[in-house]
Design a protein that fits this description.
272 residues, eight-stranded parallel beta sheet
Length: 272
């Protein structure tokens, strides 16, 4: 069954998308007709992810194969998913991503700042290098990606949609995640503040806040699913698809009058 073409012709940039939630967001966007620039700092992972997505799109619609953007080659505007490896916290790379998407597809409709890093540590001994590493990517990367995207979107009659990936740890304390939780709470305030800045250009800015989610990373913990199934009111942790579907709603035409909001997707965990 071919998915509904809810995003037909839309152009999206998604960071931190080699696996997990970011990958599933890219996959769903491409399957629903979007042209997607998939970023990950791990070049091999990014290429494999884009190839997998393009393979699925090709199987459903006879779409083109993936291209790799960067030093190897320039992408083809007909491809539904292209990989672009690089550090989403670096300003020059951020501008190159936006420029590449526009160069390939002539516009930019959706930007999802999903790249982030989690560095656990006790507050009383948390090292400065860990703190600034978390802030550089989680806050700086998101802030300047939104800025670069908005500068492009304001030129377009239809504006666009920007989405940040927050976390339930921005709402509820979690041991050894003071820096990470602080960064995620800050993203939600950034989204609210940008309502004032970007609404005149018809740009919406929202945040999705996942709770415990089954991904390749959490699969390494043998107890993860069991523990979170016990303490989550709905009886299980989220899947990457659960989060992706919420993200797609917030960047879709169905959410065109929603901005400055955070959608928590946690099976009810933060309600306890």
């Amino acid at each position: 069954m071919v998915p509904e073409q809810s995003f037909a012709g839309k152009v999206a940039v998604v960071t931190g998308a080699g696996q997990g939630i970011g990958f599933e967001i890219c996959r769903q966007l491409a399957l629903q007709g979007a042209f997607v620039l998939l970023n990950d700092n791990d070049g091999e992972l990014a290429v494999q992810a884009a190839e997998r997505i393009c393979g699925e799109v090709a199987a459903l619609r006879g779409a083109g194969v993936t291209r790799v953007l960067g030093k190897q080659s320039e992408g083809d505007a007909g491809d539904h998913c292209v990989a672009m490896a690089g550090d989403a916290s670096e300003l020059a790379f951020i501008h190159r991503m936006i420029g590449t998407a526009v160069s390939n597809w002539d516009r930019l409709d959706i930007v999802i700042a999903n790249a982030g890093i989690t560095l656990f540590g006790d507050f009383l001994s948390y090292p400065p290098e860990s703190f600034f590493e978390v802030m550089k990517l989680n806050l700086g990367g998101t802030f300047f990606l939104a800025q670069a995207a908005a500068l492009q979107m304001k030129k377009q009659p239809g504006g666009g949609s920007i989405l940040f990936t927050s976390s339930v740890t921005g709402h509820q304390a979690h041991k050894n995640l003071a820096a990470y939780g602080m960064s995620k709470a800050a993203l939600e305030m950034l989204a609210r503040n940008l309502v004032i800045e970007l609404s005149p250009f018809h740009i919406t800015v929202n945040t999705v806040a996942p709770g415990a989610t089954l991904t390749e990373r959490t699969a390494g913990d043998a107890e993860y699913e069991k523990v979170w199934s016990t303490i989550t009111p709905l009886g299980r942790p989220a899947t990457a698809l659960d989060i992706a579907q919420a993200a797609l709603f917030l960047v879709s035409s169905h959410a065109r009058h929603i901005t400055g909001q955070t959608l928590v997707v946690d099976g009810g965990w933060t309600a306890q």
